[in-house]
Write a structure and sequence with these properties.
The complex is a heterodimer of chains A (174) and B (593).
Chain A lengths: L6 H24 L2 H17 L10 H23 L6 H8 L14 H6 L3 H11 L5 H8 L3 H27 L1
Chain B lengths: L4 H20 L15 H11 L6 H8 L13 H4 L6 E5 L2 E6 L2 E5 L18 E7 L3 E7 L5 E8 L11 E6 L3 E8 L2 E8 L2 E7 L3 H9 L8 H5 L9 E3 L7 E7 L3 E10 L2 E11 L4 E5 L3 E8 L2 E10 L2 E10 L2 E8 L3 H9 L1 E3 L24 E9 L2 E8 L4 E8 L12 E6 L3 E8 L2 E8 L2 E7 L3 H17 L18 E2 L7 E8 L2 E7 L5 E8 L12 E5 L5 E7 L2 E8 L2 E7 L3 H9 L1 E2 L1
Antiparallel strand pairs in B: 1-2, 2-3, 3-15, 4-5, 5-6, 6-10, 7-8, 8-9, 9-10, 11-20, 12-13, 13-14, 14-19, 16-17, 17-18, 18-19, 21-22, 22-23, 23-27, 24-25, 25-26, 26-27, 28-36, 29-30, 30-31, 31-35, 32-33, 33-34, 34-35
The chains are: A mainly alpha (174), B alpha+beta (593).
Chain lengths: 174, 593
């Protein structure tokens, strides 16, 4: 980031660029404009708390980061307001959020395509850890998880990734 | 082949980042999403996040009112101003209180409202009704075939209630934007220009509405026009009767207002009670009367307006009155009307005030549980600004600043900053520059800075202790003195080699600029009104020095921190630095007042 850019400027730039996208993401889950605005507001708070690792206010990486946080915040809000504590996270993920990821033919077989195909709940934690470089503690705070849950999710994600890669390899061998 | 944990770890480290490109395609681009018209509530909350330092003073006073359940600006619907409903209007000690079926407005100003009429009126329409109130202007046009156009001009800060899904942004006058709303077959065009807000509601086409809107010439009221009419000095007051169970929680004092918040904690429930006094300044407040009763009560020959609203079975009260050019309000919930009125009856001039500041607690206890071996060497207060410098034998230092957060701004390099929390939930920014750390946060209308070479954890610990103390004892009261003098910031014509501006803070009675060198040397320049500044006490390390034939200064040195203090033309100046005395004197000699 430009050394002369202040946090305020960078943050405002990020806000202006992504506020509508985040509203779109939040509204898709919450179906309520007030709650969706709350989710967007909380997302930007969390982004500010973790701003030190955001390299550019406007870039695909930042966009993806904000979307991950916003989805998680929205799901938490939805859970709170529906008082459906017994809804599992995975059920919400698969029922509410479209997890389809389009992989181009030339990307087929690549490791990044396999990561992209991971279940969303695993993928987002893995990306926050390995692509954004956040610690388990930071991820836990961002997603309102326990640290133990972060470790477990990463572990399960890795196992799933190994499964996907093995399957791909077996398919190619055939 | 079996994928081991190490292999997966390495693969993820190398390839996770590239996955972002694939995932990016699953998110729509900005131009593929229809823009959402965010609510005022959202914008207000985001403003606090984006520009926490740029709120004007009056906004902060309004922010304090948040504790009260009554909200300042609520939906002012079409029918509220429609003159079909007869508005009860009473003169209230020269101020106007208007009671509408859905709310009450209180206006405190002698400044006349400046109405403007559209220069273009669509063909066939003719004016059938015109009404001007103290803060709004309304014209109704009708045509023979039943078409209508209602034009409204407001002064103030209204919130319009509409579903964003029914709204679209519409360009107006090249560089302005309006919102076009269609709800229940009614088209509305809403825009803000100059110092007013406008609305056109019509059965005509959108194009005709825009053409009419573009023919409205904007009007600007100067700030001085609003405020200069009153040259009355503000004196803080406080209620001497406080309902049982409540104790003072925070005290805030501004140039023309003071506010005291009391807190009661019973059965784990927090209950707030807020008293405010302000000089009448042209503000207009609107209180919703949804689920509320509004009535007039009397005490000590004063007529007051009492708004009682019931939400969640707990009554909320707002009592407001005007007495001798001052506006008073008490907002509370879950107390009786009698207690509220008894409290209002007990309001007195704050006994502890004097020309300057009053102090309830010892200065040196400003930060509880100071890191070991630090002692206070400088403390200073002026115009709500507090500066304290603590030093240790081993070269450790801790500087503490507290000042009113009114329009102050500062800049820092993003790469050096991190977001942290202080006092449980306060968002703070921690800036690290070589060995120097700066912690900045806001609390209760004040901005706090801690500057130190101490480790991050000790700095945050000190910050936590400051907050706890301040929350219990917000102890400084400014009661006038330099109201009419204008603060003119000075400039430094000479700067020691390599010094670069690092941060700058300025408000209407104070200027502070921090410079630093790459090698860690620093120089802080501060300017304030002499009459509002007190220094010391300093110990035996002071020395009288001469800046010029007519200009004396005091030099203070301890543990590597050098301070030069002098006064000139009604202003006090301070240079605090790691640089030698000679450099400070040379810098001081080149300050252009």
């Amino acid at each position: 980031m430009d050394g002369n850019t202040t946090i305020d400027d960078a943050f405002e730039l990020m806000f202006e660029e992504y506020k509508d996208l985040l509203y779109h993401v939040a509204f898709k889950i919450l179906q309520d404009r007030y709650l969706a605005e709350d989710a967007v507001n909380t997302t930007f708070w969390r982004a500010l708390e973790n701003f030190s690792k955001i390299s550019k206010p406007v870039c695909p990486k930042t966009k993806q980061f904000l979307a991950i946080i916003c989805e998680r915040v929205s799901i938490d809000l939805l859970r709170k307001y529906r008082q459906e504590e017994n809804i599992s996270l995975d059920a919400l993920d698969y029922n509410i959020i479209d997890t389809t990821v389009s992989v181009l033919p030339e990307e087929e077989g690549s490791l990044q395509a396999a990561i992209a195909r991971l279940p969303k709940a695993y993928r987002e934690v893995i990306l926050l850890r390995y692509s954004y470089g956040y610690s388990a503690h930071e991820i836990a705070q961002m997603l309102s998880y326990t640290e133990m849950k972060v470790y477990k999710t990463i572990e399960r994600g890795k196992r799933k990734l190994a499964e996907l890669l093995q399957q791909e390899k077996d398919d190619n061998d055939i | 082949m079996k994928f081991t944990d190490d292999m997966l770890e390495q693969m993820l480290s190398e390839h996770a980042e590239k996955t972002i490109e694939i995932l990016d395609r699953s998110l729509p681009d900005a131009d593929q999403i229809s823009p959402h018209v965010f609510s005022r509530r959202f914008k207000r909350r985001m403003r606090r996040l984006i520009h926490p330092k740029k709120r004007p003073c009056i906004r902060q006073i309004v922010t304090l009112k948040k504790a009260a359940v009554f909200i300042m600006c609520v939906s002012f619907s079409l029918c509220a101003l429609s003159i079909n409903v007869e508005a009860a209007q009473t003169k209230f000690l020269g101020r106007i209180v208007q009671v509408f079926p859905d709310g009450v407005t209180v206006h405190y100003s002698k400044t006349p409202f400046s109405p403007v009429t559209p220069e273009y009126i669509p063909k066939g329409l003719s004016e059938i009704k015109r009404k001007q109130l103290h803060d709004s202007f309304y014209i109704e046009y009708r045509s023979e075939n039943g078409d209508y156009l209602n034009y409204k001009q407001f002064k103030g800060n209204w919130t319009y209630d509409y579903n964003p899904e029914n709204a679209e942004n519409t360009p107006l006058n090249a560089d302005e934007n309006a919102v076009f709303v269609t709800e229940n077959d009614v088209h509305r065009l809403i825009w803000v220009e100059g110092d007013f807000e406008y609305e056109i509601a019509s059965s005509l086409s959108k194009e005709e509405m825009i053409k009419t809107a573009e023919s409205v010439k904007s009007v600007y009221l100067s700030f001085s026009e609003e405020t200069s009419s009153d040259s009355i000095k503000f004196v803080p007051s406080e209620p001497t009767y406080i309902p049982k169970g409540f104790s003072e929680y925070s005290y805030c004092s501004y140039k023309n207002s003071n506010s005291i918040q009391y807190l009661s904690e019973e059965h784990g429930c927090k209950n707030y009670l807020t008293f405010e006094k302000s000089l009448i300044d042209g503000s207009t407040y609107y209180y919703s009367s949804e689920n509320a009763e509004i009535k007039t009560v009397q005490f000590k020959g004063i007529e007051a307006t009492l708004v009682r609203r019931v939400s969640n079975e707990i009554p909320d009260y707002l009592l407001m009155w005007v007495d001798k050019n001052f506006m008073y309000s008490i907002s509370a919930s879950d107390i009786s009307e009698n207690e509220l009125i008894q409290m209002a009856r007990s309001v007195r001039i704050k006994l502890s005030h004097s020309n300057g500041f009053t102090q309830r607690e010892a200065f040196s206890d400003e930060i509880l549980n100071l890191p070991e071996n630090l002692e206070c060497v400088v403390h200073e207060n002026s115009y709500g600004f507090i500066r304290m410098i603590y030093q240790g034998q081993n070269g450790d230092y801790l500087k503490f600043f507290r000042f009113l957060s009114d329009g102050t701004d500062y800049q820092y390099n993003l790469k050096d900053a991190a977001a942290v929390h202080v006092n449980k939930d306060r968002h703070a920014v921690l800036i690290t520059e070589n060995d120097k750390r700066i912690l900045i946060w806001e609390d209760g209308g004040f901005q706090y800075n801690l500057i130190s070479n101490l480790p991050k954890d000790e700095l945050i610990d000190a910050a936590n202790n400051v907050c706890i103390y301040i929350n219990i004892h917000n102890e400084f009261t400014y009661s006038g003195g330099q109201d009419t003098e204008k603060f003119v910031p000075s400039k430094l014509k000479y700067l020691p080699d390599g010094m670069k501006e690092f941060s700058r803070r300025q408000h209407d009675a104070f200027l502070s600029i921090s410079y630093q060198r790459e090698n860690g040397d620093y120089l802080d320049f501060e300017q304030g009104f002499t009459a509002l500044t007190s220094w010391g006490p300093y110990d035996q390390h002071t020395e009288d020095v001469q800046l010029s034939a007519e200009q004396d200064a005091v030099f203070v040195s301890k543990n590597g921190v050098n301070i030069l203090l002098w006064s000139n033309n009604g202003f006090s100046y301070t240079l605090t630095s790691s640089l030698p005395k000679e450099e400070l004197i040379k810098t001081a000699q080149n300050v252009i007042s």
